Amino acid sequence: MGEASLVEMTVVKVSPYLREDRPLVWLSEKESGQPRLLPIAIGEFEAAAIQMQLENDEPIRPISYDLLSSMLDCLTIGVRQVIIHNVRRSIYYAKVVIEKDHKIKDIDSRPSDAIAVALRTSSPIYVARELLDKVGLEPLETELDIEHTLDRFYELEPQISEALNPEAEAANISLPESQLAQTPNLSETEPPAEEEKSELTLLQHQLQQAVLCEEYEEAARLRDVIDSLEDKTSP
Q1: Taking 90 as the threshold, does the pLDDT of residue 77 lie above it?
Q2: What is the mean pLDDT of the chain?
Q3: Cα distance between residue 168 and residue 177, in whole Å
């Protein structure tokens, strides 16, 4: 795949899509006045790992991606680039391009894993131009702010949550990273107060970090606090 057929991207943010347990990682064109955006559904663990790197959050102990990055460095294996090159049935496909002793090899990867590794090795992230042309989100001419485009996505793009073809399960295709959950029914409950919502978000972030760092006693304590807070805010 030639350089002209690739578009370099940056990781903008990780955000929940419809439900907090179905996050999206948002990629944006790096060199563009009106950058197109590409949202990709990922798992909770991968989302937390990417978010930690975006926020320069140092874990107490190395998590899997930190370990992999250190091993690649010790083995003098360079990560040249990450390429997200295809999508089929809402499942995105990526590869990590590595170099060892001047030999190049493509390693098949989920986009979330590839992005997490790229961030830790300061490697460029690319998307195939044809793919971006097909599924990228175009910003409005009057909305150069990426946040506005993200907001518009959540308001106007619910069809992206359409379930995958059930034949995928019969074909033993793994779905968890790319299948987005349907919108939950929120009409029966009132949202918690802003202060409680903010505290709950902070606790959930701390819980993710504790689990990632395998601090299970702390994770259990935080889980109890979260359950207690959720019980208080339930009708």
Answers
A1: yes
A2: 77
A3: 13
